[in-house]
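Internal ticket #5521
Category: modeling
Description: The requester needs a full-assembly model to guide mutagenesis choices. All entity lines are attached below as received. Residue total reported by intake: 640.
Assigned to: D.W.
Attached entities:
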Amino acid sequence: MDVIPSLDLLAGRVVRLTHGEFSTARVYGEPEAVLASLDVPRGSRLHVVDLEASRSGHPVEMRIVERLAQRDLIVQVGGGIRSIDDARRWFDCGADRVVLGTVAADSPALLASLVDTFGPHRIVPAVDIRNGVIRVAGWQREASASIEDVFARLDALGIPEALVTDISHDGVLRGPSFRLYRELAKTTKIRIIASGGVTTVSDVVSLARLRNISGCVIGKALLERRIDLADAMARVAMPNAIPERIIPCLDVRDGRVVKGVNFVNIRDAGDPVECARRYEEEGADEIVILDISATDANRQTALDTVRRVAGSLFIPLTVGGGVRTIEDFRAMLRAGADRVAINTAALRNPQLIADCATEFGVQAVVLSCDAKDRQVVVRSGKEDASIDAVEWCRRAEELGAGEILLTSVNRDGTGAGFDIELLRAVTSVVKIGVIASGGAGKLDDFRDAIESGGARAVLAASLFHDRVLTVGDVKRYLAEEGIPVR
Amino acid sequence: MLPGVGSFAAAMRWLIEHRIDAAIRDAVNGGASLLGICVGHQLLFDVSYEMGTMPGLGLVSGEIKKYEGRLPVPQIGWNRVNARGPLFEGVENGVFYFVNSYAASNAANEIARADYGGPFTAAVQNGRVFGVQFHPEKSSSAGLQVLRNFIAWT
């Protein structure tokens, strides 16, 4: 998949408009200076939009396209192209391809003659879709043809690639429209250049995992430095290098696995050793034990449980619950935990994160963050800590946490799916891995937490205890969906 | 077996202080088989640059350096290797559990390679001395197979 930086040009400079209003233009500078600051390598594809041309209907920024083409960049240019002459003027400037919006969806005859004149590989139809319908003329009206008809027509003309933007997603908090791209993979063989909603490197990696995506246009996120271009390009070269993890969670009380919604109606769900071993056999990548009794009287029981499970397990074990001091942390490691999750104690004393990271290494320290309506809560949601969850996760990374176990208290036990917006909010500001927790109900949820949420691991408890799904079911499903698993 | 979690320099100083370094070299010279795990694997090399420069046991040639790629360090998680030789029989393309910030790359005695923002040496063999950068004891069935292979080979 090609990572394609996008430059919107107005009056010779790179700009961004808000809601398409020319009066709102924010100026980023001369195109060459912007390309240099983004470190765009030679030979890259570049997406250029001539904003003035899209308003006036006549090419304006031809000199710039000429300069860019001479810099060994593969330029595709769009903006108000409505005739063969318009297209020819861009090609004469050195453009490699032209991008057509309204024409592609609404003027089949003109599209056909453009293809006849310049060849199908030099025409990139831009298809903007809102709620399953193509929009044209600056999104102001519906196209006359359906998505299926338009793609069938492009296919018949031999056009290999189309730029698809889900405008119901543009600028929204859920990221690129993976769902739309997956649907298109079923209906057309045309390869898709994805556009809109790309705000993190994880988004770029997730797009690269889809088999019908040939490119990904990124504008604002590059200009605003939320995505480092070299980073994105390196990750896209090997999008499946690192397997994503599935983690069953054992809530343990008095040496037994228990389950219950929001800590009421707690029922016995078996012996921790038997559960953990079964999950390892099913393909679990790690086990989390949360000791929910965690009173001083029961601390010894909890350590015994950890010792028993660690002694029979050959995958990593993370343990949390009631860890208040560096000595508690050490005791868990000595009992056989590979990593220890700290929660309430870290809120009361953030330095505990740094102290444990220094003493035991960052790989051993997991911050467990329970979030309700974006606020950190403690004691299973009974108490509001008055801290923004995203800010707390960012702070924990600075202090030395090696990973974050992020639980949505709103979703926990509901089976309604993970809180994708919460996940995105956190994964877009931290570099360390985030384990998604709270809300797993069906197979799609695991995919979405990784693909859209940017999670590096997904945790579930009752779904696995109740054998609604096995770990194996989840991993087979993810593999089919193009997400790498062990 | 030379297992290990922790820093190279601290581990090496400890080995020297307790004269275990000499004992290991004598045993290997006397024909013993050795398997180093994680930091134990790194200790087999000539030198490490974790916290300054610290010489290792010198049982395999090469250097231990910090990851230079763009991925978060430490690497914490599963990674696929591309391996050959008796230690990896049946798990030549196995996925193993790694926890490390430092690694060798392109080592002369390399028998397994993996990629973490760039290729690195996941395992080495020099005669009867083996080292694995991952944790076989945490790598489920693939890891147990490596341990079984080591025992069978010796």
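Resolution: model delivered.
Comment from assignee: Chain A is about 35% helix and 30% strand.
Ticket closed.
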